[in-house]
Predict the structure of XRE family transcriptional regulator.
Amino acid sequence: MGSILGRPAKPADSSRTGADALVGWLARTHRYNAPDAESATAATFAARTAASKASRGIGPAMISRLEHGTASWQPHHLASYERALGLPEGRLTGPAHKVLRAWAPRGRSEDPYWLRSAAEAEQRAADIIDAVLGVDVVSAADWDLLSGHLLATGRKLGRRTWGTLVDRLMLEICASQGIDQDIRAEALLRIGRAELAVGLTGEISIDTMTQRGNPASFQPLKIYQRAPGRAPVGWVVRALFDPPDRWLLRELFTTVAALVDTGTWHPSVRQLVALQRECRATIHDTQGEMEVRRAAMQLMRRCDPAPYLGLDGAAGHELVYLAKPAARPDAQTSRYRDACLRLAAEIQDIGLVWQAKWDHGEDPLLGDVLGQSLVGQDDMTRSVYTALLVNSGYRDALRLALVRLLHQGADRFETILLRAMIRLLGKIAEGAQDGWTLLGIIGADRIDLDTRVQASGR
């Protein structure tokens, strides 16, 4: 890959990769990608946020602190950025929710500042409930506000109303994509904390997961991966060993891994042995879908202190890589990291509108964000970084760089990087050229079946 890509980007400063710093990086990429110089300059951008009557202003010093991760992001900051930059509603809020939940201390998943502001929106919340009951259009932002209001105020609703809210929200989650889906998923988690809604959420989720032929039946599992404490643990574990539909297997492995990782479920010795046996059988099933085998390896890492023992090259280089201890870099991991840094340099060569605003013209975090998104060894962490990347100001530059590189010849990349690049391009692809690029991948020589199927699905 080194012969295709140019100079490497600089590695990130690991001390600046906390949750607030990541949200700050996301916001800063959009500010530096704005078409006007005023947005790219902190002082004039601050004046623009202050001029908006719909949101509170942010001073230049606070902008600097927020974007460098030395101040905590609050809802009105995100709203001010979105309005001042003319971004679609939720472009910053959706990824921010995902990041803050992933980095939140155990036992605290909601931002108290955000809940406080949602609690004040009494009339707006009532209007949204009326819209749901009247089968009117309800946006992702509406669900975001309503769920926060209900959680913050503890408002009492009838069982039928709770059931309608949960049922409608689940349908919209299954029908939406991207940030709209992420925001609705967060809303369901909040609504599901109400006393009457707890059981209803579980019932509707299980009904969805047991609908054979439903292409979105796995969505409740993806929601439970964000908040394992809300999952119907017994049902999820039983379903892993006897899935109602093999379509669910990948998310079942990932969800059980989240249950074990967070201490939500403590398997007995007998259960642990059974999990290890199930994981090994799936990992070594060379006829199985690679994404399912990857998920099985994620669970194996939680159940076995040395998942790499007994694993040979026949299982595939990608699974061998995922089994390795993250803290022990070797030639393979160094090679992947260098490839990601070079891709980061390619993206910055295309650049944001005001790319030169970064110190020395180089974004210090893009390489790490890209690396975690493409070849991160933990599925949940990779999901968070991918949400940041595809919703950042680099979205167009990323798409152009991936199309350019894949168009040069997909079979020139190592399999794990090729699959990861296809996954990423599939989230942002648009237009005929991107389609022809993916068709070219499907027909390329030396491309394995799993990668062909993955490209076909895009």
In short: Residues 1-17, 452-458 have pLDDT under 50 and may be disordered. The chain has 25 helices and no strands. The radius of gyration is 22 Å. The CA atoms of residues 128 and 142 lie 7 Å apart.
